[in-house]
């Protein structure tokens, strides 16, 4: 199957042939042979020149047009694995789960990990100079090659951004997704963001011992959620709670945002797909889940959090505990 790049090449060749024919037309030749033309001939040459300019403009515009890449973003313990499985179940869609150019938190500290095909991690473990810079370039090239490969087979590539690495690790956070910053020059990126009530996310993070940021407070977590959402437009953000209440309707909206073909059969097949990070309560039915038990200390944190109040004002989260 031809991809859009081969189609553009073919169009360029056809337009070049048309230009050569037009340039050798009788009207252009008469200018060379006779030294002068009738007004009607001059007008025809002018029309030809305008046509050629338009043709070249179309060729250059298509040449500069970037391919589309879909990316989904969410923080850990926010229902992202369920939503990723559902997107994976759509026709001709292939999702690379939890991607990031240089996230090494999963590696043991005192020993090297056997990862024979992961050149970026091997370079990091070997102590190569500028290994992070190398990792970014390897990641960029890998995504470009993978997107071309998937498209050649008639598929659609979707990346699941490991946003936790950018916003919930360490004392600081990124101002923008590292994945987007790495790929935005090469792709026209369609981003979907999913969001869950921070009370439930923080409770799960605490239960899994995944509070990787400092300080480890609920208010700090809510601040990081706000920073995570900051680069995106409101239409790109959908809530997990709405999805589990009405999965088919919200999936239609997700498909509109990502420009994917909707197929309601995802509700029957999503659980067959395997994705990383599937750490939550599993099941074959998409439905709301009861909240984890909240202790008095956490209740007090929730009540005192100004950043949670800001999130509630914007997204109308249920603050009842």
Mind explaining what this structure looks like?
The chain is α/β, with parallel strands linked by helices and 321 residues long. It has 15 helices and 5 strands. It has a 5-stranded parallel β-sheet, sandwiched between helices. Helix 10 (218-229) crosses helix 15.
Low-confidence segments, given as residue ranges, are: none
Task: Please work out how many helical segments DSSP would assign.
Answer: 15
Element string (H = helix, E = strand):
HHHEHEHHEHHEHHEHHHHH
The percentage of residues in β strands lies in 5-15%
Kindly report how far apart the N and C termini lie: 55 Å
Strand order of the largest sheet: 2-3-1-4-5
Mean pLDDT: 86
The gyration radius over C-alpha positions equals: 26 Å
Total strands: the figure is 5
- Report the structural category: alpha/beta
Shape estimate: globular
Largest sheet at a glance? Answer: 5 strands, parallel
Helix content: 40-55%
Write the layout of secondary structure elements.
Layout: H1 4-23, H2 26-34, H3 39-64, E1 68-73, H4 80-88, E2 93-99, H5 119-125, H6 131-152, E3 156-161, H7 164-167, H8 178-183, E4 188-195, H9 198-207, H10 218-229, E5 237-239, H11 240-245, H12 247-258, H13 266-269, H14 296-304, H15 306-315
Parallel strand pairs: 1-3, 1-4, 2-3, 4-5
Helix pairs in contact: 1-3, 5-6, 10-15
What key attributes describe this structure?
321 residues; alpha/beta; 5-stranded parallel sheet; 15 helices; 5 strands; 9% strand
In short:
With 321 residues, the chain is an alpha/beta fold. It has helices at 4-23, 26-34, 39-64, 80-88, 119-125, 131-152, 164-167, 178-183, 198-207, 218-229, 240-245, 247-258, 266-269, 296-304, 306-315, and strands spanning 68-73, 93-99, 156-161, 188-195, 237-239.
């Amino acid at each position: 199957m031809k991809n859009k790049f081969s189609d553009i090449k073919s169009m360029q060749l056809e337009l070049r042939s048309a230009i050569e024919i037009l340039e050798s037309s009788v009207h252009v030749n008469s200018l060379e042979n006779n030294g002068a033309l009738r007004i009607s001939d001059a007008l025809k040459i002018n029309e030809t020149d305008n046509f050629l300019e338009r043709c070249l403009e179309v060729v250059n515009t298509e040449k500069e047009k970037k391919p589309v890449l879909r990316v989904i973003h969410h923080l850990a313990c926010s229902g992202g694995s369920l939503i990723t499985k559902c997107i994976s179940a759509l026709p001709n869609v292939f999702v690379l789960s939890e991607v990031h150019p240089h996230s090494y938190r999963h590696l043991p500290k005192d020993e090297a990990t056997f990862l024979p095909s992961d050149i970026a991690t091997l370079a990091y473990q070997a102590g190569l100079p500028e290994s992070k810079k190398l990792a970014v370039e390897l990641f960029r090239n890998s995504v470009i090659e993978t997107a071309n490969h998937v498209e050649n087979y008639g598929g659609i590539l979707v990346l699941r951004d490991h946003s936790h690495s950018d916003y919930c690790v360490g004392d600081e956070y990124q101002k923008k997704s590292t994945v987007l910053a790495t790929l935005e020059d090469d792709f026209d990126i369609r981003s979907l963001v999913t969001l869950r009530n921070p009370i439930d996310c923080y409770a799960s993070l605490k239960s899994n011992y995944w509070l990787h940021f400092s300080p480890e407070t609920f208010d700090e977590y809510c601040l990081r959620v706000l920073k995570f959402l900051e680069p995106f437009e409101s239409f790109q953000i959908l809530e997990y709670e709405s999805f589990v209440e009405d999965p088919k309707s919200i999936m239609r909206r997700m498909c509109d945002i990502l420009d994917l073909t909707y197929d309601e059969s995802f509700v029957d097949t999503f659980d067959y797909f395997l994705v990383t990070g599937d750490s939550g309560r599993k099941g074959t039915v998409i439905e709301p889940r009861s909240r984890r038990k909240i202790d008095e200390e956490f209740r007090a944190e929730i009540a005192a959090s100004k950043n949670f109040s800001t999130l509630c004002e914007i997204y109308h989260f249920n603050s009842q505990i």
